[in-house]
Structures are given as C-alpha cells and as structure tokens.
Amino acid sequence: xxxxxLIAIKERTQCKSRLQPQLTAEQRVAxxxxxxxxxxxxxxGAHSVAQxxxxxxxxxxxxxxxxxxxxxxxxxNEALLQARRALQAMGCRELVVLPADLPNVTGAEIDRLxxxxxxxxFAIAPDVxxxxxxxxxxxxxxxxxxxxxxxxxxxxxxxxxRLGLKPRTVxxxxxxxxxxxxxxxxxxxxxxxxxQHQA
Length: 199
Hints:
disordered C terminus; Spore Coat Polysaccharide Biosynthesis Protein SpsA, Chain A; alpha/beta
C-alpha cells in the first residue's frame, strides 16, 4: 500500500510576500498556483504515493479529484498534526509532507524520500542551506511533533531520535530547491519564470 502525500499551502494571496518587489499580487498568485500544480503532479507520478491531499484554508484552483483538508488556522505545525491524525483515522499509515513551493521536484525524488523513510521510520529532505526542512516522510504510527520553522532540520531530527526512529537524510535537487526570495526566483532555471520585472 502506498503512502499519502500531504501538500501544505496557505491562502494563495498570502503566499510569497517576500517577492512583492519583483512580482505583482496577480503574478505571485499565478506563480504559487503553478508551483502547487507542479508538486501535485510530481506526487501523483510517484510510484510510492497512493493518495495526494492538499492541506489549505481554500480549494482555489486545485482540481476536484484532489481532496483538500481544511487548515485549522492555528499554524502549520498544528495543522499538520491534525491532518495526520485525520489521515491515520482513514487508514493512512505512511505520510510524506511536501510544501507547495518545490517547482522542480520529481516523482522519482519523492519515491527516494519514501524509500528512505521506510528504512528507518523517518526521512527528511533539507533545504539548500541544510538548516530547514523541505519535505519529510513518516513511516511510523508514533505521535511525531512537527517542528517547521527556523532551524527545523535539526529539530525534526531530534524529534525522530526521541521517538526511537532511525532518521535518514535525502539530498535531492528538486526537494532542496524552493522559491522564497527574489534570488531563488532568479535561480529558477525556467524560461517561463516571470523574471522580466527584476531590477
């Protein structure tokens, strides 16, 4: 049985505020939707994933066949905790958590993360700086406490060890690269990226 992929995203108009100097509000929303679609498509193409779910306060442009779980509004970590409990109640035994701003992620990379998680109960994909968490896989029923935020990579590793898991780290280009800043936008190797407004 495959795992559940949970893709977390805020209300679209609240996303990527740090790109305001480069992109208009409409362009930011379009970028966010495009990245979310890319992550959904990658997750749907992963052989290890049986179900793709979006965690968000709104459906927006998410296709009807993709379930959307309501964000509790109490912060990302609490929303993920509640969503995991709901999915476990529906029979989901393995979970891969993905943000919606990984424009280059592939299904093969997600499969790699899931395989690593199954070996030790927990796997993490850090960001380029090796300080944050860009994705994680939980192949355990243990009551894991999500620690997204500043320095989350180390916090997630400590949480996994606290639960007696054997954490694995997966470094993959598409999982490591997210778009948060104007510099990230410039590095995105995509000719359709709206960088013409860069100074």
